[in-house]
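Q: What does the assembly look like in three dimensions?
Context provided by user:
Components: three
Sequences:
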Amino acid sequence: MATWTRASATPEAALAELGLPEHASHWRLALERFWAHRLAVASLVILLVLVVLVLLGPVLSPYSPEHTNLDVRYEAPSRAHPMGTDSLGRDLLTRIMFGGRVSLTIGVLAMTVAITLGVVIGGLAGFYGGVPDAVLMRFVDMMLSFPRLFLLILFSVFFGGHFLTVILLLGALSWMGVSRIIRASFLSLKERQFVEAARALAVSNRAIMLRHLLPNALAPIIVAATLGIATAIIAESTLSFLGLGIQPPTPSWGNMLKDAQTDMVTAPWTAVFPGLAIFVTVVAINFIGDGLRDALDPQHVNRSVRR
Amino acid sequence: MSRYASRRLLQALPLLLGISVASFLIINAVPGGPLSAYENAPGVTPLDLQRLEHQLGLDQPLYIRYVSWLTHFLSGDWGYSYATQQPVLAMIRERLPNTLYLMGTVYIVTLLLAIPLGVVTAIRQYSWLDHFFTGLSFAGLSMPTFWLGLLMIIVLGLTLRLFPLGGIGTPGADFNVFDRLWHLALPVATLSFVGIAHYSRYLRASMLETLHQDYMRTARAKGLSHRSAVFHHALKNAALPLVTIAALDLPELFVGALVTEQIFGWPGMGRLFWDSATRSDYPVLMGILAVSSTLIVLANLAADLTYGYLDPRIRYA
Amino acid sequence: MSKVPNLAIAMVAMLALGACGGGAAGPTALTPVKGGTMTVAVWQEPNTLYPYYATQTVSTLVYEIALEGLVRVTPDGAYQPVLAKEVPTAANGGLKLSPGGQSMDVTYHLKPGLKWADGQPVTSDDIRFTWQAIMKDPKVTTRGGYDQITSIDTPDPVTAVVHYGSIYAAYASRFSSSAGQPILPKHVLEKEADISKSDFVRTPSGTGPFKITEFKSADHITAERNPNYREAGKPYLDRIIFRSVPSREVALAQLKAGEVDAMWNLLEAQLPDIQKQTDIKVRAVTSPSVERLEFNLAKPANPADPNVPHPVLGDVNMRHALVLATPKAELVSKLLFGKATVAQSTLSIGWAAPKDVHQDDYNPTKAKQVLDQAGWVAGSDGIRVKNGVRASLKITTTTGDQIREEIEQVLVDRWRQIGVALEVSNIPSSVLFGSWSANAPRKKGNFDINMYASSPDIDPQETVAQRFACANIPRPENNGAGFNYYRYCDSQTDQLIQQAGSIVDQDKRKQLYSSILKRLNDAQISVWLYNRSSIDAYRSNVGGYKDNGWDNLTWNTEDWFVSKK
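A: Here is the predicted structure of the complete assembly.
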């Protein structure tokens, strides 16, 4: 029989539950709550390890990611090559580490573009309401009505598979969800008393949006941002898998999987390892995002803290 | 309510028109064009290419070609494929059932498994069951679909030889239900895994929120049995957001998962789109985009209306 | 121009090519068996089976077993009569030049007693009808050569006199099965207002050993024996089925399991997988297709001005160095598993293929010397600079082609070693091969290096003229017509090309082509990478097939058989 714990009625009670002094800020509260989410913490550690590997590893590796050696093609994992070699005799582990730099950077930057666009458009729509809202939301609808992958493909063919292009493309096609969240958030926030007070004080619209509404809507933004990185990494890998993303010889986790369909018969490790890298990274990010959601959203179900 | 619906429907028309214009512009802006198939055929002369360009109407200005396409489209003539010379409508009609068949199965399997999973993991929060399925769900959310498909082919198809490597049925064999199911297994498993992960997590979060509401305590206090409370009160309310998500995913039934179809060699709409996009087969591309954008717009509308209808607070507002 | 000396030369050439998959022999020690069905796995489905609309190889693969031309090309690159009694030449009177030398007539005599699959006789009216069908239908792929025909006379049911309005050097290659230009049945097609809407485009039948009887989309194509086939006792098989499979991997799996008898068009990467199996035989046949690195001699722009040279590739020494820095032999042996041959020019096989034209082999030391002497000095990052111009280039090829991408990456590595920076920038094939009006970069001259394969016709005149003559550089003035993507312009080469197209003496033409190709190689306008092979696989109980680089594996299905296993 499940015990249905109740959300803590007051912030003081929540603090007390966690053993914190009464005057702790709500960020401190969030941090404590995050810390209690063990999987999220573990994932954070894993992600940090990965980032370090990706930044330092290439320096430590004796191989270059682009140097081809046609005599050692398709070698199975061995001591010399812990993850084997690919179709041009390049060390897979080194390429995965270099590829990590590319994929992670694209993930973060694409997410930044998406969040920025989403916050701006959703925020303007939610704050002003009325006609601007209707127009902007119809625009969002139109963007959502395009099958996303189709647009991605068509644009990639048009603009080419360069670093910047991929980032802009991925960002430009994933801001819609964020904009809806921000719009909903601003819509409800602007009815609150502190906004009324600010208006009474003749604070400019821009200041209200930036200094009053935005900080209060930060929680969903942070969660969306974190999960956005995960989505962007997967999207980049799909694009590169189709041959439209990052071009070889620059490795990215996605384009390393591109030839996997034919290579997997003779050299399955070329398909397994890059995918595993994506998988581990994205799982970690998802758990972190989950932890952040629990930590930052006070309305969210308060998990009974198990100590 | 019906006034709202008809207003939204009317709004959808200019939206669809705008999408068709944008699609047409994008497709035509892509460098290359459909004549590439002829370019590399041995013996083709520049004179031939000029003639073919004229024959396909590509030497006319963009707006004339768009208007021509639109008028034909609205009267039921979706044009002919540049590559196969077959009517676009016929090609789509040929591929659509295959996609429907695959995605429909995925849809049903996903819902059938995701709903109980979401409910059970919510009720038995923090049990080993919850942790196990949560872990599995995160795995499903974090895998690129194509990688999962490739892994399945490697492990179950190549190594263990339990399942076929692709296709809708054994080539050359007569129609056989078991053969069809056998070929469905891997692509459905791949897509469902991801789908179940998403839906069950969503339902679980929704259920948890509902279960903690005060009216649930009231229901229990009034003496309602646990099962009754869960099903009649919690689930009904928790399922509402899920219904809208499910409605929004309906267009997927027709448009198909492009990458999965590629990997499993499934002759569906996704594959048709990819083939047409890579050879700039404009008429087919416009046809597919028209179908999918219409479906998405309708699905959005359906989702909004359904939510509006099912939520009494909105319905009687 | 007679066949025999060419045959001799060709055979010597074949021996010289050695064991690199150029053998013309088929399987040995199998006796023909009458009857049975053979299944061929095809991983791509034909868009159409009407020869004059088809652009895909797989279309030719299928319709070729049903539709035949007056002549065809044999593995040694010589013409062979099929429906015609003999190949028309000046020697046998089939070819007559007009007194003024401005036009010519070609006379074909049909073999006696020829019948279509439905029993109707084949007559010279069918030949004329074919020409008219090509000229009337706006959707046909090419009219090359046929637009030079002014009229066709049919003095009797087995004779057709084709009147050309000019000297068309490649006349012998028209109405040829190998060129995908077979004779069409007049009595079947004349009633169709629009051939593209008829059944003939899906289930054609003609004079070939089989007739296509069923075309089930994404499933299979069935071809049944033609009871009226002209050779008695043939074809051996009762039926051929082309089975549509979703991918090459599935096709190979089916072949290994014995569910299909043959597989069309393998990838080199699949070879290691089959080489261990003794019940599967692989045939790699050198095709006329040559994979090349095409240099843009003009400065990239949209559109490029051929008078403005490329800042890097405009220097012939740079081009020479790049040729020297390309490890062709290694690419062929390692990446292509030896199933290709290093190319020396754009004509790899056939009567016009020169034996004395070569390109330098891999020699990175010499490459560096050439660049040093030409004034390209290595900068701090190892990349050479001359007059402020950095040796940095972009290479473009089709996306989704694993071998090409691998080659590109090897080139990036090797060229860096001689101080040239190469960047990969691939695009889908529809963009690479696109049209001028659709802004395709190759047409507009907006590229540095393109990598792709191209095959000349059995008669090289059209290819050579279109690709290397100055007038055929795509320009705004000629609306982007022409295939001279190199933007190569040389008056002497132009003269030689013009000459080769205005005479019909094959030996003289051959010498001219040799001179032309030598000039092209001296100008280093291209790196001829390798001659591609068509790779197909068969189960060991299949027999009768013969390699033919000029045609598909189905060029002689009348000889195919499947013995019991």
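Follow-up: The radius of gyration of chain B is 24 Å.
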